[in-house]
Amino acid sequence: MAEREENPAEPPMEKVSEKIHDHDSSSSSSSDSDNEEPAAQSSVKADIYRLFGRERPVHQVFGGGKPADVFLWRNKKISAGVLGGATAIWVLFELFEYHLLTLVCHTLILALAILFLWANAHTFIKKAPPCIPEVHLPEEPFLQVASAFRIELNHAFAVLRSIASGRDLKSFLMVSALWVLSVVGSWCNFLTLFYIALVLLHIVPVLYEKYEDKIDPLAEKAMIEIKKQYAVFDAKVLSKIPVKAKRV
């Protein structure tokens, strides 16, 4: 009788174990599918060509801080203010032919005269005297900027030394960019060149971020064509030039 009573209890236990096993297998398969989806998405993203081989968004390429917000017009008032101020400075110095030293001296004379008169006449005009803050520049930021500039300058000197020693012909051919800069410098002065660069920084990145899906395929085709032409030039010209042996 006891055996007959225990036998009916066995099938429910088996069913429960089967359900648990099925749930574990389904959860494991779902987790595997979830893990496969990000991998597939990452592989798809890796196959997409991005201009200059970038892997980060345009905002992160520019540092992801306030300068990136200004160049990408995240805050339109600040971006418009920077561009408008740069335009006013360019018009003042280029069109009105105002000089920097004259502008600085006139500005300081006007500011000091207003503050001096206000400090001495506040009793007559019944207003509080001007609160002139103490200006103290910290030492650490200047040291950091100087250190970073020193590192970049040493790297530039090392590259120039390598090119001048005749070890890298390809880098020497890239020096032709200096000739392009010299031609541009003959067309305009440094202030105009700086202003043009600033305007381009306010226009090109935001347009690229908006239309990057259309620009990247065109850039990919252009890079493929450039690589083909460079391969032909390398095979016909560069490969035939003897390479200077390095000194031991």
Descriptive overview:
The chain is mostly helical. It is built from eleven helices and no strands. Helix content is 76%, strand content 0%. Helix 5 packs antiparallel against helix 10. The longest helix is centred in the first third of the chain and has 38 residues, at 10-47. This is Reticulon-like protein B5.
Q: Give, in order, the helices and strands.
A: HHHHHHHHHHH
Number of alpha- plus pi-helical segments: 11
Report strand %: under 5%
Low-confidence stretches: 1-13, 27-46
Classify the secondary structure makeup into a structural class.
Answer: mainly alpha
Terminal residue distance: 98 Å
Mean pLDDT: 77
Helix content: over 70%
Largest sheet report: none
**What global shape is seen?**
elongated
Number of strands: 0
Alpha carbon gyration radius: 34 Å
